[in-house]
Design brief:
- The protein is mainly alpha-helical.
- About 70% of the residues lie in helices and about 5% in strands.
- The chain has helices spanning about 5-75, 80-90, 90-100, 105-115, 115-125, 155-160, 165-180; strands at about 130-135, 135-140.
- A hairpin with a 2-residue loop joins strand 1 (about 130-135) and strand 2 (about 135-140).
Amino acid sequence: MSKKSLPTTRKQGKARLGDQIRSIADRLKQETDVQIKTTSRILGAAAQIAENHDRLISEVVDMVESDLNLEKQVSQKYIYTIDILKQQFKTLRDAKAHFNLKVSSWESLVNKLNTASYQTTIIQNKPQSNHTLTDNHVIKGEINHKRIEKLIVFLEPDVAEIFPNSEAVNEGLRFLIRVTSKNSF
């Protein structure tokens, strides 16, 4: 090799090295751009999740407030008086049979009907459909709603801790129904 070819080889080596460094820098820049775009998308998704979370919380609060207002209205809705009952039923016997209560006078019937515990029973006993639940199966058919007072469901111990009475179970189920019907796609 001559002395003239040695500097040219170094220049070519430096040029290749410079090209490699530029190539690496370009790839790093592209990867950085991809990372910035990905981070931007992640932040956008996080903002959307936060917005959806706030909206869901607002919906739950609205539903609970609605339930509380409805409960107030329901408790005020079923106020019975002797005059009202006498207009609806010809005899005390008819009224007792309708409400399936054992009382000796119109006054005692009104008192029982206006107690808070009976008010919730009236609401719970309203028939919603002609289905009954037996051994965890729904059976369709004709049902004499006057003869059915309550549907008995047995709760597992862990569920019974959370839902200690029928009111709690019904409220929980109503809430679940509203949430699933509002958020169904």
